Every structure is written in structure tokens, then in C-alpha cells.
Amino acid sequence: MAPHAEDPKPDSGVDLIHHDGKTVYGDWRDQFHKTGTAVIKGVISPERAEYYKQKQIEWLQSFNRGFDPNDESTWTQEHLPVSFKGGMYFAYSSTHEKFVWEARTEPKILEVFSKLWGTDELLCSFDGMNITLPRQKDLTWSPWPHCDQSPQRKGMQCVQGLLNYQPNGPNDGGLILMHGSSKLFDEFFREQREQDDHEDKPPEEEDFRDLFIFKEEDVKWFEDRGCKLEKLNLEPGDFVLWDSRTMHYACFPQGDRIRHVQYICMTPRKFAKQEDVDLKASLFNNWQGTTHWPHCNIRKQGPVERDGKPDPQNRTEPYEKPIVTDRILQLAGVKAY
Ligand SMILES: [Fe+2]
């Protein structure tokens, strides 16, 4: 790879990974640069995936609300900690659980992001996990095709990842990606676009800058230009990467299998402003989560609420604290490279 004369600047409209459209790597990066999406098979073993799956179940059970993975009658909100979109867990310091940091620091996960960005000096998001129960009775769920980059941010500014722990067949939950949509992001937003008035649209005052929910007609707009919506059927241990401009959402599980995934994103430390690194470090020191974005868009979240009131089961530290290594401190922005 030819060294850059100068590093690209975040939010200057330039892609943060330069690709000339010709370079061939002979690995998943070729697919990624072509469509903005890539599936990387077997980054962890099926045994490791099974371990993480069990840890997620144990974590749900640690709230002692009677959740039993083998008894479907307990698959209701009453028996579970509070989640977003029926299974995304960001609260309760869950983003710093020991098993979550173990997943982030799996050697091949670190290798994927190092290869992608061409540097080991990375920051990691304090991102959530997704545990979705099929047929959960007290859940209203609707598809929400969206992207996690604001229309105001141009160019490739972030790459998201998902580590899969459970086999997904056609009836199971899984990630749906609009392949190639990231390449049309600028063209799409050249016109004035309104977000869909979706039930999950966050209130204006929360200022979710890096979220745009698409309307049905927008899905068609991308399809008319050759993009393809695909639900991924993955094996345990597979990892998916997508440019944050990519339209995506989850398929709700209809079969018998619980969906188990961990979101993991890393971007180079050099793209972060010092104030954002400092904020990130303070969130780490207080066991708080972030958005998918590792180097910016870092916001403190309020305590979790159940039925409109602060959840008495809120946690200010993980159930099982991670073994904090220097590598973790670097990824968290606490320790300098
Ligand atoms: Fe998303």
C-alpha cells in the first residue's frame, strides 16, 4: 500500500480508507471495497461462539427475573432486562462485561480491523449485543431500514461489525444488508430527504445525528439503481463488516433459535479529537456505553428506564468485570499508543 502523503481528515468528505478502485488484496477487502459490505468466515471457532452465547444467556439470567432459555413462557419483558428493538442491550454496563471485551480482543477480530485500516492503533466502540427471542409475545417489532451515518457526513467515515454466535437459517433472525447502498449515499442525499416517521425514530431532542431511517420508497430507490437487499445466513464465528452508510436492519427470528450477536467497531485513534478520546476514557472508567462510532459521535447516555421510571436493577458496573489489559486501555482511549 502506498503511504499517504497526509492522513485523510474525518468529516472532510473524503473516504477515510483510500481505495483506488484497482488494488486487489485477494481477501475480503476486495468485496468490501466493491460493495461496502463483507462477510468473513470463521474469525472465531464454533466453540468460542458457543462460549459467548452461553455468557449472553447467563448475563440475561443474572437479573434474576425468571428468564429461562428453555421455557418460552418466560420470553417476555417482565423476565428480561430492558433492551432496545427487542434485543439490543446497551445499558447496565453490559458493554463492558468481561465476555464482551474478550470478544473485542479476539486475535482475528483485531486483525480484521488492523488490515482494514492499515494500523494497529485503533479505538473500539463500547457497543451493544443483540439477544433476540423468537416469537416474543409482548413485542411490537417492525422493520427499520436505516443507516448509522448522518446525511451531513460525507464519504466513508466508519465501518461497523457484527460477530455472529448462532447458526442462522432462513427462519432465523439475522442481519439484512443493502449491498452497494453506501456507494450511492451522496447521490441519495443530494436531494432533500425526510426520515421515515417510524415508531423507533428517536425524539428530536436526543439529537441522533448518525441515524437515518429510510422510507419504503427509499428502499426502492436503491433497488432501482442495482443494489440488493440480502438477509445473511451466517454460521457461528462469522463476522460481518459494513460501511456505516449502508442501509441495514435486522430480520426478526421466526424459527426456534435465539439470535445471538455482538456488535464490534474499530477505527484508527488518529481520527479522534483529543476531547473525544478524553470523553471516551471517562465513559470507560465509569463503565458506560457508546454508539457504534469508536472515534467520534461519543455521547453519554442516561440511566436505563423501565415503564418510564429509572430501573431499580440498573447497574453501574459490569456483572463480571473484564481483566483490564494495556491493549484494552488503548482500545478504550485510556492509554496512549
Ligand atoms: Fe444500525
From TrEMBL:
<dbReference type="InterPro" id="IPR008775">
    <property type="entry name" value="Phytyl_CoA_dOase-like"/>
</dbReference>
<dbReference type="Pfam" id="PF05721">
    <property type="entry name" value="PhyH"/>
</dbReference>
<feature type="compositionally biased region" description="Basic and acidic residues">
    <location>
        <begin position="302"/>
        <end position="319"/>
    </location>
</feature>
<protein>
    <recommendedName>
        <fullName>Phytanoyl-CoA dioxygenase</fullName>
    </recommendedName>
</protein>
<feature type="region of interest" description="Disordered">
    <location>
        <begin position="298"/>
        <end position="319"/>
    </location>
</feature>
